[in-house]
Amino acid sequence: MEQFAAGGAWPGAVAVSGGGDSVALMHLLARWAKKTKKTAPLVLVVDHGLRPEAAKEARSVVKAAKALNLSATLLRWKQAPSRGIEAAAREARYRLMGEALRRKKLATLYVGHTQDDQAETFLLRLARGSGIDGLSAMRKLAPYPHPDFPALAVARPLLGFSRAALRAWAKARKLAWLEDPMNEDPRFDRVKMRRLAPVLAEVGLTPARIALAATHLASGRDLLAGLALALQERVSRPVAGGILLDQDALGDAPRELGLRALASLLQAVSGAPYRPRFDALERLFDRLVAGTLGGGATLSGCRLGPAPAKERIFGPATLKIASEMPRKGSV
To answer: Pseudo-torsion of CA 58, 34, 27, 104, nearest 10°?
Structure first.
């Protein structure tokens, strides 16, 4: 039972949609907390308002949580868009729950992502042409997936379990859960991937195999991250007002490491929670390698250009990354 709360800070909150995975996680965390005499998890329920039945279903989840003697908070999304529903609903969900975590002074949100979710995410990102980072496995403990909450984390203790195994566990204990009809709506990309699962399994691409491939890629991602950090430390120096960069040394490095190091340096200066768009990052890196930056360039809230003469610690090729000055008239 310990594994169901490993990794994240406790006490924490658990996101419960009412589906089989999140209901199973709610019960597992409640049992673990009771057995170890720890604080019970706070249950967060989001009513997206996307279907007429949504409000009633959300209230039923709150009722089920209270039947376990768990505190539950119902959060409502009131501005559903007419297009881009998947992305907008995800953003709203994590924003609402992030605000609730902050109010309750909790640091970690526990979610019911399974091995099947891992495989579906891999396939979705593969279809979008993602690189090694996008294709790598979701981490069991990761930064909170919303830029407004950098101090929070998300924990995924069920990644090693299949959706079928969790539902069998819940069924054996006569637990009730909801089946969201949107999980069968072919308009959504994730549903399309889910419907491919039986066909892929026939040729050996089971969710377990796909998740394993994502885990192998995660090992590569972590190795590259370590090498990029070592490169970053070798080619840069923090100074007042920004970071100095050895243009020649960065350009001589393997391209993948150079791109990662440059992205990290830009984030360090701008404070942005996410990397710059990859195509824009590549264009900037290519100009840097070719020596065609000229007077400088901007990206992700930063300005990258020749360092002042007194700061050229790497010689004439010294660049400086500084926060981009606000344009005239901007607030």
So the answer is: 40
Name residues whose C-beta falls within 8 Å of residue 134's C-beta, 6 or more positions apart in sequence.
Answer: 125, 128
pLDDT at 329 over 50: no
Residue 97 near residue 15 (C-beta atoms within 8 A): yes
Which residues are bridge partners to 47 per DSSP? 76
Average pLDDT of the chain to the nearest whole number: 90
142 and 92 within one domain: yes
Question: Within this chain, do residues 34 and 168 fall inside the same structural domain, yes or no?
Answer: yes
Same domain for 77 and 187? yes
* Cis before 11 (ω within 30): yes
Q: How far apart are CA 13 and CA 31, in angstroms?
A: 14
Report pLDDT for 272. 81
Angle formed by the axes of helices 20-36 and 54-67, nearest 10°: 20
Residues 140, 277, single domain; the answer is no
3, 148 contact by CB (below 8 A):
no
Burial 221-243 (b: 16+ CB within 10 A, else e): beebeebbeebbeebbeeeeebb
- Rounded distance, CA 121 to CA 110, Å? 18
* Structural domain that includes position 58: 2-205
114 and 254 belong to one structural domain: no
